[in-house]
From TrEMBL:
Annotated family: Belongs to the sel-1 family.
PANTHER family in the cross-refs: ERAD-ASSOCIATED E3 UBIQUITIN-PROTEIN LIGASE COMPONENT HRD3, SEL-1-LIKE PROTEIN
Protein name: U-box domain-containing protein
Pfam families, A to Z: Sel1, U-box
Parts forming coiled coils: none
Record-level Gene Ontology MF annotations: ubiquitin-protein transferase activity
Domain of life: Eukaryota
The U-box domain, residue ranges: 41-120
GO BP annotation list: protein ubiquitination
Species annotation: Pseudictyota dubia
């Protein structure tokens, strides 16, 4: 949309700003200098019309528009092969996309030099950092780093660091991490096996892995909490046992576990469960005297 040009009080024609549909309020700011004003229309053209973000991996589709590769590929894959249309022009287009290297370079230079600013730029910086973190983890994992394998599993499981949630991929990384001796990986792998997430259910192996992870090398508090909850409720073929529930809860609450992945809210929940069980056990002990 192109608004009409306006004239200032001194007769100077003010150049209209081109608007990008849907995202005008969130456009990156332009540094206040005459040389940078000409970049305004160009930077607006960089925004992916589908996501509204500056693209990390820009590609040009057959409609001539620049998109984030992942987003436009999803559009193309969802559309009918024999009647694909552009999400911008709504006219027929082909399914091919081409790397827009110059666009990526231009965005990176503009961001690094401070030519463009604003929330969209900060989001782009944050996504770049996540991309680098993921790439570093992949490199370490390829060299046998079991910790990196575990983190890749978590990111796939939770859909973090720009990754799509994929439980099957998470299972693969947790398995590799566990094979490398990482007890957090063992706990995560055991949980998926018990629940049958991303893999066929195998409760015997899953509970064995979680018990090992809760005990070895000081133990993982999330594994201890899982066992406590399952013993307390008698879940996943474990016998209902307040004694064992209290044992594992005590390890979580006391901070005995060397690896503490639970947040304060989780620890408080464990403490409340333990207090409730202890109150229930005292009258029972008195009645047996």
């Amino acid at each position: 949309v192109f608004p009409s040009a306006t004239t200032t009080a001194i007769g100077e024609v003010r150049r209209p700003r081109r608007q990008v549909r849907f995202y005008e309020d969130e456009l990156p700011g332009i540094s206040d200098s005459d040389g940078n004003r000409a970049l305004d229309d160009i930077i607006q053209e960089f925004l992916c019309p589908l996501s509204g973000f500056l693209p990390l991996e820009p590609v040009t589709a057959e409609d001539g528009r620049t998109y984030e590769r992942r987003v436009i590929r999803e559009w193309i894959e969802r559309g009918p092969r024999d009647n694909l249309i552009s999400p911008v022009t709504w006219r027929p287009m082909g399914p091919r996309t081409f790397p827009a290297t110059q666009v990526r370079n231009a965005i990176e230079r503009a961001v690094n030099f401070g030519t463009i600013t604003g929330p969209k730029v900060e989001q782009w910086r944050s996504r770049i950092e996540m991309e680098r973190e993921v790439e570093a983890a992949r490199t370490k994992a390829s060299m046998g780093d079991a910790d990196a394998m575990y983190h890749l599993g978590v990111w796939h499981q939770c859909g973090k660091k720009g990754m799509k949630r994929n439980i099957s991929k998470a299972f693969e990384w947790f398995q590799r991490s566990a094979d490398g001796g990482n007890i957090q990986g063992m706990a995560a792998l055991g949980f998926l096996l018990v629940r049958g997430k991303g893999t066929p259910c195998n409760r015997v192996e899953g509970i064995a892995l979680i018990t090992f992870a809760a005990s070895e090398q000081g133990g993982v508090d999330t594994a201890a909490f899982c066992l406590a909850n399952w013993y307390n409720e008698g879940l996943y073929d474990l016998p209902k046992s307040e004694k064992w529930a209290m044992f594992w809860l005590s390890r979580v609450v006391s901070g005995t576990c060397s690896i503490r992945d639970m947040d304060d809210q989780g620890v408080e929940r464990a403490r409340a469960m333990l207090n409730k069980l202890q109150k229930h056990m005292k009258p029972l002990s008195s009645s047996l005297r």
